[in-house]
Design goal:
Blueprint lengths: L2 E6 L6 E6 L5 E5 L4 H11 L2 E6 L22 E4 L1 H7 L21 E4 L6 E3 L2 E7 L8 E5 L2 E5 L17 H18 L2 E4 L4
Parallel strand pairs: 3-4, 4-5, 5-6, 10-11
Antiparallel strand pairs: 1-2, 2-3, 7-8, 8-9, 9-10
């Protein structure tokens, strides 16, 4: 059984998720916010951070990467091509406007993924869903009965599509697509923000 631990971040009420299995030494993140609770969890559970799946490049979903710079050569970051571009540009990832410009350095291993990617975690297939709209590079992830939606679908809140790289039509279509998928398959939704 895959376990999911939600971490409420201080920046814009964003969320980071840790995925792990009891019998496996590895753990994975979906998005990367406050590092202190992540590092505490890993050390107390004896887990090793193997990968980070990014739903998109907005700063409230990536700011913890700045505290992982020494470990980034050991951790694979999974992202869409548009998100990878944003990781390397403080204007695109919006960190420039937060007073802490952040751009990913060359030591980081970024693996580009999309809807045709095949990723196996904990002997289960992780399905990558391209869900652009909120941002051009938005991805959502399904594994087992879990659906990680980032900001593409936040139950109880309308999708936000007023950024420079947003697309209203795609945002609304993908929000509905994710909602239907969650309802039809009775999936647990893990969105990018908490209310």
């Amino acid at each position: 059984m895959i376990h999911v631990e939600a971490i409420n971040n201080v920046l814009f009420q964003s969320r980071t998720y840790l995925m792990w299995k009891e019998e496996a030494p590895d753990a994975y993140l979906v998005d990367c916010g406050d590092m202190a609770p992540i590092q505490y969890f890993l050390s107390t559970r004896g887990k090793f951070l193997k990968g980070i799946f990014l739903t998109h490049c907005h700063y409230d979903h990536i700011y913890g990467l700045r505290h992982l710079t020494d470990d980034l050569s050991q951790v694979t970051i999974y992202a869409s091509p548009e998100t990878e571009e944003g990781l390397r540009d403080a204007r695109i990832n919006l960190s420039r406007y937060q007073g802490e410009p952040f751009e990913l350095d060359g030591k980081a291993k970024v693996t580009l993924i999309g809807s045709r990617s095949e990723i196996n975690l904990f002997d289960a297939a992780l399905q990558v869903l391209e869900t652009p709209g909120h941002d051009a590079g938005c991805l959502s992830f399904r594994i087992s009965d879990c659906l990680f939606t980032g900001d593409s679908y936040i139950p109880g809140l309308p999708v936000f599509y007023k950024w420079k790289r947003s697309d209203k039509r795609l945002a609304l279509e993908n929000e509905q697509r994710l909602k239907d998928l969650a309802d039809d398959c009775m999936l647990d939704v893990y969105s990018g923000h908490y209310l």
